[in-house]
């Protein structure tokens, strides 16, 4: 592991020796990471992004392979790394780090570390500056140079890096604007308006509590005497317990009627909605009191595009073209934990799964909050109607169902439940192979 960092990441001796190739648009492919410092100061922005991140960290990354019309999980070292990306992070930590970086910068980089043909770890990178060389050494290969805040730099082949892009539009390499940064200019204007409104609200509240009345002295009095009269009135007011206060004929208390117009809730909610709309989040999602329809809209509009980008970027970064296209390997981020279903809807779903022998008994238990049982390990959940149908056939045949029918039932169950592990592909040109240990 140490050799990897020494090879690719080092402190520059002379940065002037490095030159960048121009790209077709004539824009220098150098991107500085702004890390969203300005917009992140807003609590509304933090709440909106956090609402997305907390959902994405529930994702379950799976190495799988398509075989014919079926999709089967692959239990190998790649899956083990997906389950434990690196010594510092759990899978949810790993996804959370990527999600925050992506939403604040419109770009996120992950580097897979290989030892020979074995994947050993996945590390999210947080560079300050990123440079692209689209014709490294005249080879036609794209390389990327990362500059980190601690002064280290890293030169890596771009095909060996997992790059997740958000709002991939005008830049040829990066998500965001032409400089590879999030375009927060419109959002900053809204945040300034929100800040002005909140400061105005604070001033209005201060005005309401600043002056409540006047002490009217019905004769000529110098400044010191006026101050003394006010302090005496305040003393009597603070010491009073009955709520009644007496004054002499020389003094008169005149209450001030204040009509300070505060911001209405509709205006404040409009501003919050406008800010949150930038990230595809609604107020019910932030508050956590959403309906099923509201969550489904949030899932389809905001979460699904990011989930698809994650799946495709990890597939591209971990597998070679031959492994991905020829052997149908892929990484899929499953979001079953994100599906919002009540108990009745879960029952309807598992009715379908059980009738088709498509789930295990322990899977059925855990879906309803019950812990799995060791004695049910590997047992498929089968519909009682299906079992009764077989028993009826036994009775009709004098207690002997045809051997062919029983064999067909056993074959169906094996096809649905067996073979969690698959034979590995042959090693090829990618930095690592797909191996089972």
Placed side by side, the strands forming the largest sheet appear as: 1-9-8-7-2
Question: How many β strands by DSSP?
Answer: 13
Q: Level of helix content?
A: 40-55%
> Major beta sheet, specifics?
5 strands, antiparallel
Radius of gyration: 33 Å
The SSE order reads: HEEHEEHHEEEEEEHEHEHHHHEHHHH
Please count the helical segments: 14
- Work out the strand percent: 15-25%
Which structural class matches the secondary elements? alpha+beta
Runs with pLDDT <50, length 5+?
13-28, 30-37, 413-427
Nearest-integer average pLDDT: 76
- Principal-axis shape equals extended
Distance between the termini: 19 Å
How would you portray this structure in words?
The chain has 437 residues and is an alpha+beta fold. Among the domains are: 2-42 and 83-182, no CATH class; 216-255, no CATH class; 341-421, no CATH class. 42% of the residues lie in helices and 16% in strands. It has 14 helices and 13 strands. The strands form 4 sheets. A 5-stranded antiparallel beta sheet has the order 1-9-8-7-2. It has a 3-stranded antiparallel beta sheet with strand order 4-3-13. A 3-stranded antiparallel beta sheet has the order 6-5-10. Helix 2 (43-56) packs across helix 4 (91-105) and helix 5 (185-210) packs antiparallel against helix 7 (265-277). The protein is extended.
């Amino acid at each position: 592991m140490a050799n990897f960092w020494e090879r690719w990441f080092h402190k520059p001796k002379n940065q002037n020796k490095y030159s960048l190739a121009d790209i077709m648009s004539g824009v220098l492919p150098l991107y500085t990471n702004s890390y969203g410092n300005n917009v992140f100061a807003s609590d509304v922005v933090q709440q909106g992004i956090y609402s997305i991140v907390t959902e994405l960290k529930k994702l379950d990354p799976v190495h799988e392979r398509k075989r014919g019309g079926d999709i089967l999980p692959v239990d190998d070292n790649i899956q083990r790394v997906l389950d434990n990306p690196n010594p510092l992070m759990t899978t949810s930590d790993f996804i959370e780090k990527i999600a925050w970086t992506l939403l604040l910068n419109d770009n996120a980089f992950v580097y897979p570390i290989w030892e020979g043909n074995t994947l050993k770890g996945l590390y999210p990178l947080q560079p300050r500056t990123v440079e692209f060389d689209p014709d490294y050494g005249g080879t036609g290969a794209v390389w990327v140079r990362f500059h980190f805040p601690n002064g280290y730099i890293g030169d890596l082949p771009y095909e060996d890096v997992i790059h997740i892009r958000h709002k991939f539009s005008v830049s040829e390499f990066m998500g965001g604007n032409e400089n590879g940064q999030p375009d927060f200019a419109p959002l900053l204007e809204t945040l300034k308006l929100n800040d002005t409104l909140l400061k105005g609200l604070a001033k209005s509240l201060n005005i309401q509590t600043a002056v409540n009345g006047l002490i009217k002295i019905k004769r000529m009095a110098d400044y010191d005497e006026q101050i003394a009269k006010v302090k005496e009135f305040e003393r009597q007011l603070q010491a009073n317990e009955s709520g009644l206060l007496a004054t002499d004929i020389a003094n008169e208390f005149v209450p001030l009627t204040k009509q300070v117009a505060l911001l209405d809730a509709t205006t404040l909610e409009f501003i919050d909605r406008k800010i949150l709309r930038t990230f595809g989040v609604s107020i019910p999602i932030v508050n956590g009191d959403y309906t099923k329809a509201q969550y489904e809209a949030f899932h389809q509009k905001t979460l699904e595009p990011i989930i698809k980008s994650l799946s495709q970027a990890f597939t591209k970064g971990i597998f070679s073209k031959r492994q991905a296209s020829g052997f149908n390997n892929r990484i899929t981020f499953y979001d079953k934990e994100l599906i919002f279903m009540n108990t009745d809807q879960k029952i309807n779903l598992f009715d379908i799964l059980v009738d088709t022998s498509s789930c295990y008994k322990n899977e059925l238990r855990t879906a309803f909050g019950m812990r799995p049982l060791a004695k049910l390990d590997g047992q498929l959940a089968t519909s009682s109607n299906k079992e009764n149908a077989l028993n009826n056939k036994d009775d009709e045949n004098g207690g002997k169902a045809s051997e062919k029918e029983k064999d067909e039932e056993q074959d169906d169950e094996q096809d649905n439940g067996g073979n969690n592990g698959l034979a590995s592909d042959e090693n090829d040109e990618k930095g690592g192979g797909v191996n089972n240990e």
